[in-house]
Amino acid sequence: MVKHSLSKDKIRILLLEGVHDNAVQEFHARGYTNVELLPHALEEAELIEKIQGVHIVGIRSATRLTDKVLAAANRLICVGCFCIGTNQVRLDTARKAGIPVFNAPYSNTRSVAELVIGEMVMLLRGIPERSHLAHNGVWRKNAKNSFEMRGKTLGIVGYGHIGYQLSIMAEAMGMRVRYFDIEKKLAIGNAEPCSSLKELLEVSDVVSLHVPATPQTKNMIGEAEIRIMRKGSYLINASRGNVVDVDALVRALEDKHILGAAIDVFPAEPGSNDEEFVSPLRAFHNVILTPHVGGSTQEAQANIGVEVAEKLIKYSDNGSPVGAVNFVEVALPVKAGGTRFLHIHANVPGVLRRINELFSSRNLNVSAQYLQTDPEVGYVVVDLDGDVDEVELIGELHALDGTIRARYLY
Ligand code: NAI
């Protein structure tokens, strides 16, 4: 078992914003019992005080880890964002301070895919409009524009985590699946790739978008693309707001080229639940509008709790920063015995030589060494066999020119 330079109950963990209880349980199960959970975010001044002496901090989207907060974090070894986004953390400042930041980019994959399945059923049956009419006392009992999804073709743009999960579920419902991705992606099940976006738009009864926000995907579904889509087809966007040109969609809904749509993400979204949602799509009763909740389920929150806690524990236990958004990737094996030194330093000439001199001058047997650098920061992990004076060595490592952070595990 890997032991820490600090016993695990001395490692202070501060979780803010009511991070899911699964995270706390995960820490406890792995021996980290010194966990404080607050139900809310803290303002900068409060956080500057609170973060001192904390080794691991967990936040969601409302806590800002600013330069000042990070400067006050005198013991911090890593940060967990128990959410998808990480722009609430000054990632570059954290990187230069030797603090990896982790998040959970894929914990809500299933939630998004399920919502899209539900939306397809609703759209193909014309339910949004019929429901609206029924709420207004109008009885619209007929089969006009009402279809099963079985046998229809779903075109998935972006065959990543959500895209291929959706592909499996749609096939299980009897749909044919085509997909388009800029990367070569292995087809799952009976899905078939399209050689271009144009081909996908031409053959699909429902087009569902699952691409990231990039310069290439900005307005990737505009006037021209919508007009290539089949007359009477449907559009679903639960990816990012600016992937669809909303004005072009409005025109296609007005002239019934598009029979219905489900939109979860928008070019401009309210900053809070108190702000009004403004969109020309509000006028269309055949459009399902949802407030960016594609990934917002209890299950996704629970998954996020476990996923991020596991990454933090792995880094604390093993030194492995795999999955960090701002740090070099070093996949480390579990340390079987001996002592592991973790040294984060400025990537300038001579640091590695000085570290190795330190160990060789003491005749210490290095059983493994791992190094990764980015242009400014280097991370070296050194496994030593036999008896070593960890306290003395770590003191000397700290004193080496260029050292940002150092710790050891034994
Ligand atoms: P992913 O990174 O696993 O997959 C994205 C795929 O899109 C990749 O296979 C990539 O190669 C492909 N791609 C990139 N540019 C492309 C282009 N120009 N044309 C075609 N394919 C392209 O991402 P994941 O997890 O599947 O998420 C997809 C989208 O869903 C992201 O934009 C993400 O922000 C969004 N999302 C929305 C949620 C919501 O609440 N509505 C929740 C979770 C994710």
Can you describe what's shown?
Helix content is 31%, strand content 19%. The radius of gyration is 26 Å and the shape is elongated. It folds into 3 domains: 1-107 and 297-327, NAD(P)-binding Rossmann-like Domain (Rossmann fold, 3-Layer(aba) Sandwich); 109-289, NAD(P)-binding Rossmann-like Domain (Rossmann fold, 3-Layer(aba) Sandwich), CATH 3.40.50; 330-410, 2-Layer Sandwich (Alpha-Beta Plaits), CATH 3.30.70.260. The N and C termini lie close together (9 Å). Strand 4 (78-81), helix 4 (91-96) and strand 5 form a beta-alpha-beta unit. It has 13 helices and 16 strands. The strands form 3 sheets. A 7-stranded parallel sheet has the order 8-7-6-9-10-11-12, sandwiched between helices. The model has no long low-confidence stretch (mean pLDDT 94). By secondary structure, it is of the alpha/beta class. The protein has helices at 21-29, 44-50, 67-72, 91-96, 109-124, 127-135, 161-172, 197-203, 223-228, 246-254, 298-318, 351-360, 390-399, and strands at 13-15, 35-37, 56-59, 78-81, 101-102, 153-157, 176-180, 192-193, 206-209, 233-237, 258-263, 287-289, 339-346, 366-373, 377-384, 403-409. The protein binds 1,4-dihydronicotinamide adenine dinucleotide. 1,4-dihydronicotinamide adenine dinucleotide binds at residues 106, 108-109, 112, 157-163, 180-183, 210-214, 216-217, 238-240, 264-265, 292, 294-295.
